[in-house]
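Hey, I was hoping to borrow your eyes for a little while. No rush at all, and the record is pasted right below.
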Amino acid sequence: MDMTKPLRIGVLVGHKDGFENWELMVFDRILADPRFELVTLLVHPHPFGDRISSSLFGLVARLEAKFLARQPAYTPKRFDAGRQRIDYIEAISDRNTTDGSVARALLKRLDLDLVIRTTPEGLPDDAIQALPFGEWAFNFSDQRSEHADWFSYANVIAKAPVTELMLYARRGGDAPAGQIATSSFNIKFSAARNTAFVRERGVTLLMRELARLADTRQLDPTAARLPAISAPSFGDLFRYTGALSGYLSEKSLKALKTKLHFGSSIWTLYTGRGRIDDFDPSQAIEIPPTKGDIKADPFLFQHDGECYLFYEAYADGDRKAHIAVGRFNGDKVERIGVALDCPHHLSYPFVFREGDDIFMMPETHQSQRVEIWRCTEFPLKWELYSTALEGQSAADSILTRHGGKWWLFTNLSDYHAYEDHCSELYIFEVDGPELKRVVPHKRNPVVIGSTVARNAGRIFERDGRIYRPSQRNAYGIYGYGLNIMEIEQLTLDDYRERCIRTITPDFKTGLLGCHHFDAAGGRYILDARLTI
């Protein structure tokens, strides 16, 4: 097989125009990548088959999409429907005496490698067999009729912790559907909004897997479980609208509190003796917040025999935070002052030492770049030292050394309508704190999914094993839980990790979440969100 030849891709659609945002994003990104060729759009004559939904549900779904999931229209940069080849499969299952179905004969003439299906109904089985890499689809494409889309309604009604996204392939014949990739995303209050968000994330997942296929020309999916999910019943709809109304009332009250400058999320800290592979949060001692000094994203730093605490600091009702620093006296923290303040929001003050210098890499996503600051007078005076990823929205960045190289782990938000830093982990090989050389990982984003992707503290190496704390965002709660991930492989071509432990907010009473961990000098610290 010629590995330099672009993948020839067709997309199965339900109409020749009026495409949804996520579909236009897929077309644009295929056209932008020289590894792919968008050969044709295949228009299905009966894209929804016999799938139906009630007129009441259709009305509710349309209203919800209009008011709770409205998106700015995506303007294609490369795709032009007027110039794109379109093939109409008028009689998709009709037989041709020499080549099987009409669809099969067409695909063979087009010499396609695969077809991406956006419709519930797919290609005939014999046509799929003519595709070397089959027919690809998302599970959300299966759950819709001509007038309504019910993907994730069952999740929201059941108060599921997450929504599962699956990209799978059909190969035809007796081969079962195979799972290519799957990700989990934090549930949202509105099914329509949840669906729109997941579709946008799905574009990134699809393009990553297409790039993997283009590089390897191998597809080895695992068995896929695809349960049939029907449109919500009247009873389901009644329960759903009741829960949605309650949530919107709570949201209105929260917006009023924000306007009156109170009602911020309240975080507290817990500390104890232990390391990343053996700490017991149930034995931790609380470092409580005050109204004017709420603490989150804590990082520890040993300096001149003392343990310092750098943290995101804000007062109840503040619109932005700054970086403050304190010093431990036993298990209590004595505040020293403000380490760093900027016109934009600051958090996640990752402090580290390299040679004789002390650096801080805070979260500065509102400045649209990664920033590293160098300490000029410890611990309160800092100067901007280097920047990277200009124009990109990066959060919770970490530098670590492994295999004789420096690695930057960061959470970028690849989005059109829904900015989100919880769902994608990107890795870059860099030259150290200077950030003059930044080389992206071949499989970026290496992790997709809000239950594991977002960084939650510095990376540790202990006894030959590498640990990455990550957030577990679930149950509609930002920072619901904390994972300890073990990195098993890290090169510019490959990345693999596994979750070895998850801490949920039940180690103390009155907690809603926990989302950050750090340790130094035998002491650990984590933050937790209070239910008040």
Remarks:
- The mean pLDDT is 93.
- The radius of gyration is 25 Å.
- The CA atoms of residues 312 and 347 lie 5 Å apart.
